[in-house]
Amino acid sequence: MDSHHKQSPVIVIMVPLPVQSHMNQLLRLSCLISSHNIPVHYAASTVHNRQVKLRADDIDPLDLERIHFHDMPLRPIVFPSPNPHSSTKFPTHLQPLIEAFPLFRRHFTVLLHGLLSPTAKRVVVIHDALMASVVQDSVSIPNAETYAFTASSAFSSLFDLWEAMGKPFQIAAEVVPSELPSVEDCLTFEFLNFILNQIEFLKFRTGDLINTSRSVEATYIDLLEKVPGNKRYWAVGPMNPVTICSKHGNSNNRDKCLSWLDKQAPKSVIYISFGTITSVTDEQINEIAISLEQCNTKFIWVLRNADKGDIFAEECRSAELPEGFEKRTECLGKIVRDWAPQLEILGHPSTGGFMSHCGWNSCLESLSMGVPIAAWPMHSDQPKNAVLISEVLRVGLIVKKWTHAQEIVESSHIKEAVRRLMASEEGDQMRKRAHAFRESFKQSLGNDGVSCTELESFVAHITR
Ligand SMILES: *[C@@H]1O[C@H](CO)[C@@H](O)[C@H](O)[C@H]1NC(C)=O
After folding, report:
1. What's the pTM value of the predicted model, to 2 decimals?
2. Which of 24, 189, 307, 330 has its CA 20 to 30 A from that of 290?
């Protein structure tokens, strides 16, 4: 143990759910906590640690160096390839990961005992809410405390929980949106069961952390605290750098997309990305392509296949664009086939809209950059996030209706959505509101801002 440990009466162990969007959030939280001179350990499988570090290219390397990564060996898991044609967009190809959780549990328990030191006053385990079964053995350690981290919006967590528990308390009618996607439609049966099984292991937690901001979701955070069995919530989001100082700066290896954006008119480009764990069918890609050619709007389109369980395993499919599309749209847009610097793209003055699956990371990044959203939800919390974005916060519109999840969205419809978002009075209003969120996020991150005080209060609580 280095001297750092000896001085610190508190250590923190992070246990992320091993999918990109969740790992990313806990990594960022790790940096924030370790900046308070608290040692932070990050426990994931060897491949997942490698993945999250590789993709954290906007995090200061010095911040990363302070995190103690623990590689948990994962016996080779055979992952099926993501299937873009499956009847559900839920990433069922990742199911083998969940089946490996008993193994994760054993590794975690060994790690926990290894990190216990007589000088540690308290061991704080911050685990993804979905990893509750993995950290269950913390209960047997007298000075350990667990906190569940929710990587989704307070809005979707609240209504999922409310529904799953059989609506155990009243929620004022004006707070409940008219059309709320039901939790069963958003997940597979297996996954819903898996979630329900976690509830038992959540009983012992001391509190909850959630990556959202009271400046956006105060109503729903307050309601979450009232759910029977729930405890104190610390809303520690969004916390991303609102003014980005890219390490690529003016150097030669600045991403091609960004230098292309430099040459475009303000707010003229639509950024399109459907996240890391779903893939879109060739048929649907074709419709998007046709609409882009027709509406003559500048675009950056991230066209990747879903992450496999092991992203370093060989790639299997490359999405097909219509013949000649890239040549014909050379002056109109850019296709990105690998990792895109999303936050920097959203923060670029030329970007005026985001067509998104409404994963919570994407929603937060878009709001904190003041960019309105054309919502195209796929699964899990996304359909509810789309309601939050369009109906509640009114910073976006719906491209793909959840009730039509099984259908292909036709090019004429996509074209109309792009026009409304990018070139209409209605779209301008959304952009204004999104911009106001950006401003309130900036404030919330200032010294006395809500996000900052929540984090300070959490740190004070664990070091009490
Ligand atoms: C919350 O999510 C945003 C968007 O991905 C991320 O930038 C931020 O660092 C996350 N915050 C925490 C505390 O995890």
Report:
1. 0.90
2. 307
Domain borders along the chain are: 10-241+445-462, 256-441
Sheet with 10-15: strands ordered across: 68-72, 40-45, 10-15, 122-128, 144-150, 207-210, 233-235
Which of 126, 240, 442, 445 should be mutated for ligand 1, with most atoms under 8 A from CB?
240
Cβ(59) – ligand 1 distance below 6 Å:
no
- Please answer whether residues 112 and 138 qualify as being in contact, where contact means their C-beta atoms are separated by less than 8 angstroms: yes
- Distances, alpha carbon 451 to alpha carbons 232, 238, 444, 445, in Å: 15, 7, 5, 6
* CA atoms of 43 and 107, how far apart (whole Å): 9
Alpha helices in 309-424 (DSSP H): 325-328, 342-347, 360-368, 382-387, 411-422
- Is ligand 1 within 6 A of the CB of residue 361? yes
For 10-241+445-462, which CATH class? alpha beta
Q: What's the whole-number mean pLDDT along residues 323-330?
A: 93
| CA 179 to ligand 1 centroid distance, Å | 28
Listing DSSP states for 164-175 in one string gives HTT--S---GGG
In the CATH hierarchy, which top-level class contains the domain 256-441? alpha beta
Which among 224-238, 248-262, 363-377 has the top mean pLDDT? 363-377
Q: Confidence class of residue 252 from pLDDT cuts 50, 70 and 90? A: low
365 pocket-lining for ligand 1 (C-beta < 6 Å): yes
